[in-house]
Design brief:
The structure holds two protein chains of two kinds. By secondary structure, chain A is mainly α. Chain A is built from two helices and no strands. The chains are: A mainly alpha, B alpha/beta.
Chain lengths: 41, 286
């Protein structure tokens, strides 16, 4: 579970997720709405 | 999926009794202590029960369920000596082993955990301590500097790294906790008894205290089963402190209820350090 703010910061920092071997089964975000652009990222 | 979509997808699966069947491993509808369900029942386990990622050092600390349970028992024995059942016990601590020991020790002892956020300044901290009539505060030297040590209900402050206060409250070093026995029989509580007192954000008026009952994780069964789908062999990370309701209930309590380790982080969130590329060899964020 990662709060929306942290996800948005990660996206804004230009992190390229393709560089990571992410074995992620479920990702939860909670506390406020998550914008669609960040969902797409 | 959004929460509403997830809700619609699983609403038909809701079974009022499923939470009791799958989350009440030790207790029942008459006697239920959520700290026993989340930690006490794992007291003999050498499996990892707590994993803390430090964003500054890049290191990960791990503690077994047995180590965490023993530390919680020392807290419970300390609180039993100095407070009454139902006492409000605050913990303004960064993410560290002692924070989790206080959370579970407080709940095991039938006391009520009060979670002031680590970033609170003096006004926010002292308002909650006074309003809740907290009798003990676990904190740091910097926390000692801002606490009002003359609050009438506040009997004791326990500090993990020294410090002193201006006021009449007794100050103990955390060594006073470590000196206590590491065995403790959890206080028998009813599912409707409160285990935590959290505060609203204060967007409209002053923050209000909200008591949550021990049966809370039972009621969260459908969310945990069908939305989070949390499994015992998951590597689980909740990037939220127990001072936040989600971090307490879903991150701290529900981990052990579902049979996996608490996963959390310490330090300023840094996107570049939240997970490492697999080529460096360490696990990624799950």
């Amino acid at each position: 579970m990662i709060p929306p703010t942290a996800l948005r910061q990660s996206r804004a920092a230009g992190i390229d997720l393709s560089e990571y071997d992410i074995d992620l089964r479920v990702l939860i975000s909670a506390g406020e709405a998550l914008d669609q652009d960040t969902v797409d990222w | 999926v959004t929460y509403n979509d997830a809700y619609e997808a699983v609403a038909d699966l809701y079974d009022k009794e499923a939470g009791w069947e799958e989350h009440a491993h030790v207790g029942d509808k008459e006697s239920f202590n959520v700290a026993t369900e989340a930690l006490g029942r794992h007291s003999d386990s050498d499996e990892t029960g707590l994993r803390i990622r430090d964003f500054e050092s890049g290191e990960t600390e791990t503690y077994t369920f047995a180590e965490l349970d023993a530390a919680a028992n020392r807290v419970a024995n300390y609180l039993s000596e100095h407070t009454d059942r139902g006492a409000r016990i605050g913990a303004k601590l960064p993410t560290q082993f002692e924070l989790y020991a206080v959370v579970f020790g407080t709940i095991k002892a039938g006391r009520i955990y009060l979670p002031p956020a680590p970033v609170f300044g003096p006004d926010a901290l002292n308002y909650r301590l006074e309003d809740s009539r907290a009798s003990v505060l676990f904190t740091t030297a910097s926390g000692c500097e801002i606490v009002d040590a003359d609050l009438s209900a506040l009997d004791r402050i326990v500090t993990v790294d020294g410090g002193s206060v201006n006021g009449s409250t007794t100050v103990d070093d955390y060594d006073a906790v470590r000196e206590h026995d590491d065995a403790f029989d959890a206080v028998e509580t009813h599912p409707n008894d409160p285990f935590t007192l959290t505060y609203t954000s204060g967007t409209t008026g002053s923050p209000k205290g909200v008591l949550s009952p021990h049966r809370g994780p039972v009621e969260l069964h459908a969310y945990t089963e069908y939305v989070v789908d949390l499994r015992p062999d998951d590597v689980y990370l909740v990037a939220a402190s127990p001072s936040w309701s989600y971090g307490l209930n879903m991150g701290t309590i529900m981990s052990g209820v579902r049979g996996t380790a608490i996963g959390c982080y310490r330090g300023q969130f840094d996107p570049s350090r939240s997970s490492k590329p697999s080529k460096s060899g360490t696990s990624t964020t799950r």
